[in-house]
């Protein structure tokens, strides 16, 4: 079975962007929206796995998003 890689989107409240954490060599992302993050993660993961690790075909990737927010309790 193929190794499972991971990509995590972490919300940076100061910068107001999603930043990446990943074990895919060379994958560094910073986006304004989570949808954009996922799109770019899919695109660049494919390219970087092929270029940097000579992997081809289906590769399992675990995707997570982590963030938080505050609310004003009524």
Automatic annotation (TrEMBL):
Question: DUF1902 domain spans which residues?
Answer: 5-66
Gene3D superfamilies reported for this sequence: TTHA1013-like
Pfam families in the cross-refs: DUF1902 (PF08972)
Give the organism, scientific name: Brevundimonas faecalis
Protein name, UniProt field: DUF1902 domain-containing protein
């Amino acid at each position: 079975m193929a190794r499972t890689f991971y990509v995590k989107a972490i919300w940076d409240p100061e910068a107001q962007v999603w930043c990446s954490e990943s074990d895919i060599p060379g994958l560094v992302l910073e986006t304004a929206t989570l949808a954009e993050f996922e799109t770019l993660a899919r695109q660049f993961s494919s390219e970087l796995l092929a270029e940097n690790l000579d992997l081809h075909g289906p590769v399992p990737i675990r995707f997570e998003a982590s963030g938080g927010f505050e609310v004003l309790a009524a």
